[in-house]
Each structure stands twice: as structure tokens, then as C-alpha cells.
Structure of SURF1-like protein:
Amino acid sequence: MYRFLLSRQWVTLTLVALLLVPTMIALGIWQMTRYEERSARNQLVTDALAADPVPVEELAAPGHAVTRPERYRTVTATGRFDTDAEVVVRRRTNADEEIGFHVLTPFVLDDGKVLLVNRGWIPSDGPSQTAFPKVPAPPAGETTITGRLMPDETTEASGIKELEGLPDRQIMLINSEREAERLNADVLGGYVAQTAPEPRNGLPQQLGDPGKENAALNYAYAIQWWLFAAAVPVGWFVLARREARERAQKAEQGPDTESSDTPRPAAV
């Protein structure tokens, strides 16, 4: 009854099914791995935001690369803003996807070291973004700020390319090593996204809370791939049973009989 499984059509179908099952299982495992990675990163963000604020120099130092557990930690710093050395970061968007600048202002600590502070987003003065925009002034004199510690930006992590020949006082990426060369000062690794004090006139617009990755979507994809993998052999079995049943029915009916009006050959 099942000798038809040795036909070319069914051998090909069986080989495709045997190939699909492990492929779908592997895709499900990969999606589950992505789910675990994203869940771990989300937990790091949650833990960092929930941690008590600490002085920035407890976590950052010149040449220090901000680690994943340190990212988004709330830090405080006391010093003064150096607006003469202020720069803007090109082609940054706000919550409404409007293109403008981030304002990066050196913050001189009491011990003379420099902390890079991203004060937030401002709109550009025109479509060309070549002129230095009007930047609201920060608090004058000694002040204490609070913000989230962030690692240096890189092209690999952000997808933003460094460009040569930029307009004066404009940069593409926030990088403490490059800023240390420009400022000729000891600059703490990474930078701080300022959250307090808030600007009086709403500008610069402070950066929103860090978003979390959608780990649940990867979990759903993993379950989906494994369901597909389970459905392949079930589908193959159903098709094989139906084919066998149809062949059995044809065998029971026998060959077609000739109709009564079919002319018969004349007897000799």
C-alpha cells in the first residue's frame, strides 16, 4: 500500500521535510537565544535605573570605558559648565523624529577633570545644519547636575559614520578620547545624559528614558518556529495516509468496465 513512498515525487517530498525540521528547530533555538540576550540587557537597564545615584567619579575616570552594568547608572557631579568649548552633535532626533542637534557641553569638576554632558536636543536653525545653532545657556557658576552615565559612541554600535570637514564646533559622535585631545584636558570616559536640573524654557529638550528591547517578540518567534517544525512531520503523515487511502479505493474499484453501447469487433 505504501510502495508509492519510493516514487521520485515522494522521495523528494520526504527529503525536503527532513531538511525543514532541523532548520526550523535551529531557527527556534536562535530566536530563544536572542530572547535571553535581550532579556538580560533589559534587566541591566532596569537595575541601573533603580540603583541609587553615585558621584560620577566612582564609576568613570579618564580612559575608562563605561561597562554594560554601568550604562544608564544615575550619577551626580558638581562643577561648572564651560560653554566656550561647547559643541553640537549633528543629525540627532527628538521624540517627534525632528532632526536637530544634541548639545555637548564640557563640565569642569572641582578637581579639574572634565565630564562631557549631553544637555539634550535643540532644533536646527535651518535645513542646511551648517551654522552653529542658538544654544540656550546652562546654569552659570558652580552647580550640581544629575544624569545617566553612557558609553562613548562608536560607528559600530550606532551606525553613525564619522565625517571629515564638518562645520566648526560640530561633531558626529560623542567620544571622550577625541574630546580630550580637542580640550587638552583629562576627560572622564563616556558621557552623561543630563536629567537635572531641568531647563527653564524647555530647551534643550532632555533625552527620554532609555527604551527596552522587545524580547517577547523573539520568544514568540521561537515558539512559532518549533510549531512549524512539529507541523512538518504531521503534514507529511496526513498526506501519505490520504494518498494510500485514495490508492486503496482505486484498487477496490478495479479497472473501468466497457459501456454497453461500445461497438464490439465482428466475429470472424
About this structure: The longest helix spans residues 8-50. Residues 3-43+215-245 form one domain.
